[in-house]
Amino acid sequence: MDENKPPEPQPSPQAAPSNPMATLTADAPTGGPVPFAGPADSAIPQEHRTQALLSWVLMFVVGFLSPLIFYFISTDKPFVKYHAAVGLSACITSLVVVIGIVILGVILGLISPSLLMLVGLLYMAFGLAMLAVVIMGAIAGNSGSKYEPPLVGAVAKAIFKV
Q1: % helix / strand / coil in the chain, to the nearest 5?
Q2: What is the pLDDT of residue 25?
Q3: Domain edges within the chain
Q4: Average pLDDT for residues 119-136, to the nearest whole number?
Q5: Whole-prediction pTM value?
Q6: CA distances (Å), 80 to each of 14, 36, 54, 92, in order?
Q7: Helix segments in 27-115, DSSP class H
Q8: CB distance 45 to 138 below 8 Å
């Protein structure tokens, strides 16, 4: 061994690749059964989990009335009230987006009726996204975890203070 030998150069540390989604999901809870859901809480009774599930699933049948009813009758059940508030926020957000899509459809329809097909595709894509939000909310509610989808969770915090 030669002690006068210079040490071999070490590779320079490389920065981790940046993830643009990291900034969107920085405040989102993690560890739950679905994306944007917190870890499941086993202390929540099954009755409360079922009511949180129903507040989401019944949105397919009665629309915004389901989370509205569960929001008002669950004053002593914070978990159910939270899920009902997020469900109501999803309804409010979807109403605003649908109004925007209709306005866009009217404007594009006046420009060229052939562009209305694009608006229809946009509406269908939004409908599928809302279907995914409702299904993930129902799964999170039934598992006992809080669900905070992007944009909808911020609306719930601003309006309902949950």
Answers
A1: 65, 0, 35
A2: 46
A3: 44-160
A4: 94
A5: 0.77
A6: 46, 17, 10, 18
A7: 46-57, 59-62, 65-73, 78-111
A8: no
